[in-house]
Structure formats: structure tokens, C-alpha cells
Amino acid sequence: MIINDIEKFLAWVAERELELTYDADRHKIRIYAKHIIIGDLWLPFSLSFDPKKNEVYKVEKNWVIFLVRAGTAAVGYFEEGINTEHKVFRAYMVRKKQGKSQIKYLKTKGKSRAGSRVRLGASEKFFADINEKLSEYLDKYPVDYMAYSCSKTLWPFLFSEEGSLKKDDPRLFKVPLHIQEPGYEILLKVNELLQSVNLIPEENFLNYFSDYKDKAPQAPEEEDDW
Q: Locate the VLRF1 domain: which residues (predicted)?
């Protein structure tokens, strides 16, 4: 659920004597009741949290979003939440009969015929183009966060020694939902989510927050498809 007024929500949490911890890597507040996790409060990139004072304050941040699936990707640079540049990539990577990417196919079969070599070449160029564009953003702009959605199978192909994108970069932030088909509209929707205060209760505590009145309509949760 989207929280409209985070200050009011934090006051509500304090009234119930709930415990909070801040996860800086995921930029979220974990909420406990008697040492039991009852939910996570995902914070927008435009807010910082002071765990000592239990307060949030606005900050000016810039970020990159990249959403990658086999054969389709969308990347963009956002300056204080406003998209100033974006690029959508598409490649011929999927075997029609098997419905799997050429990378996955070669992992299981180990051999490549003419059509497979074409798809493999397209796959290599696909990831090289994504890395080149992301490197351009990182070299050109001040980037505070890099929000991504990419399956573990494709993750190793996204990096290169020459590019500026590194898998151990502390600015990397996994988008907390599943992206089915990357595109420009989805890129903007993800950006909207990253600028929202999103409360995700633990499954056994879905009703715990029901008496909190100041909340917006339900937001997409981590396993929803976009």
C-alpha cells in the first residue's frame, strides 16, 4: 500500500511502540512488533531517513533505471525524478519453438548452428549496447542510485571490463517487483513507484496496518507482473 503522509505514519508506528531498523542497501525501513518482522516500508529515492531521530527529510537525488529481459530492455536517466533520457533495446534472441533465449539454449546444448550463431551475435550486441548506454549515463551525469530489474541468468552478461557498470557498485538497487515486458511506459511506472512510500506487510500481518487510515490505493507488490 502507498503511504500518503510518512511523518504521520511514523508517528502512528511510534504510538504503538513498534521497533524500526533501517536497511541502507535497500533503502527501506523494517518494522517489528515484539522482535517479529511485520512489514517493510520502502522509501522513495527523494527521501532520506535518520534512524536516530526516526525522521525523514527530502534530498535531491538522480538515478538510472534499467529493466532487462531476454531480447528486450529499457534504460533511462532521471534527474530528481524527471526522465531526461531513455532508450529501449530489442534483439532477436529467442528460439521460437523452444521459447527460450539463445544464452539459455547454449548452456544446455553446448553447440551452435547457423541460426543459433545469429541469435548469439544479436545477444552479445544487445548486452553490449545496454552496457554502453548505461556507461554513458554514469560518465555523463551525477548518479546516486541505479535501480534494476534483471534475472539472475542474464545478470552476468550485463557487465564488461570496459564499461562503467560494475556488479559490486553500492548504488545498485533491485526494483521490488517483477517486470514482465520492459518498455518506456513501464520505465515511467517503475519511476513512479520509486518515488512513493510503499508499505509491504508480511503475509501473516496483512491486517495489522488496517486501522491506519491515511493510505492511498493498493500499490503493486514485489511479485506482481508489469
A: 59-197
Domain 62-193 has CATH 3.30.420: yes
The pTM of the full predicted model, rounded to 2 decimals, is 0.79
How many whole angstroms separate alpha carbon 98 and alpha carbon 108?
12
For residue 35, which phi and psi values (nearest 5 degrees)?
A: 70, 10
Kindly list the distances between the CA atom of residue 222 and the CA atoms of 109, 192, 200, 226, in Å, as whole numbers in the listed order: 33, 15, 8, 10
Where are the chain's structural domains? 6-43+197-205, 62-193
Displacement of CA 206 from its chain's centroid (Å): 23
Distance of CA 74 to CAs 159, 163, 183, Å? 16, 18, 5
The rounded distance, in Å, linking the Cα atoms of 137 and 49 is 27
- The set of cell numbers assigned to 144 is 546516486
Look at the chain and count its residues: 226
Question: Which residues are paired to 86 by β-bridges?
Answer: 76
- Torsions phi, psi of 223, nearest 5? -95, 0
Question: For residue 67, what are the β-bridge partners?
Answer: 74, 149
